[in-house]
Amino acid sequence: MLNSDILSKIKKIELRSKKLVDDVFSGKYHSVFKGQGLEFSEVREYVPGDDVRRISWNVTARRNKPYIKKYDEEREQTVMFVVDLSASGQFGSKNIVKNDLIAELTAVLAFSALKNSDRAGLLTFTDIVEQYIKPKKNKKHILRLIDIILSYKPQNKKTNIENALKSLNRLCKRKALVFLISDFYDENFDRMLKVTAKKHDLVCIKVSDPKEQEIPKKGLFRLQDAETGLVTDIDFSSRIVREEYYKNLKLHEKYLDDTFKTAKTDVMNIYTDKPYISELIKFFKSRQEKALKHY
Q1: What is the pLDDT of residue 149?
Q2: Could you tell me the pTM of the whole model?
Q3: Dist CA 10 CA 143 (whole Å)
Q4: CA-only gyration radius of the chain, Å
Q5: Overall CATH class of domain 4-32+75-294
Q6: What DSSP letter does each residue of 25-48 carry, written as one string?
Q7: Which pLDDT score is estimated for 10?
Q8: What is residue 245's predicted lDDT score, i.e. its pLDDT?
Q9: What DSSP element (H or E) covers 202?
Q10: In 3-state terms, what secondary structure has residue 90?
Q11: For a surface tag, which of 142, 186, 201, 277 has the fewest beta carbons within 10 Å of its beta carbon?
Q12: pLDDT beneath 50: ranges in the chain
């Protein structure tokens, strides 16, 4: 039984998401996320200029003149949301914690998928796969996915993106549109990200809070790692300590940039202190431009 706070959150997210889909993203999702293949439609008589590789030799033999197979774009596709529910997702220095922002973002994309007649599924993870929900195509199912992101209590706190992607590739045999949503506080997942990007249409959505990238002011600070529980006293009065802290932040950002670039995956950066709508619109626009270049 859901408590009233969770129900209220789900209702607000549903209303806000559906309004955005209808008012802002109508048509955008459809134009940038095309079906993953072609399905047979019918045969028709060959005309000069047709691709000879599509000739149906069986029909041609029966009718004594060449016929080709006609294919239509396979519009319906599977959309998988691979969502990080590790403990760092409960952080938020502004009006919203990262996890709530992830739920709303998932809702917008899932309702866009539903409007496009696509099936949506969910895989949540920490350093294990917490839950796997098979793809379906109805409003009740989308609301269930949002509920899980908001209210599910994970068994573990740490993050293992490599393990999550391995499980996804095992569970999803056919090519899917995959949204990997995380703050990406993890390492050693570069090889598996590359493998997944080759198998699926992979979009990485990095959710961040501005405080996470700020170097604390001078003084003694007690920091606790949300995922390991480790408490450390750090004296930021020391220039060496500040420089080391900054260096580690930069090294991780470089690792992520290099990993995304090598995997050739699309990346969206979403922040708790900025509207995500503009970032989504920017992403759709860049995706459209990329598609036109390949055309």
Answers
A1: 94
A2: 0.80
A3: 7
A4: 23
A5: alpha beta
A6: STTHHHHHS--SEEEEEEEEE--T
A7: 83
A8: 81
A9: strand 201-208
A10: helix
A11: 277
A12: 1, 36-40, 72-73, 295
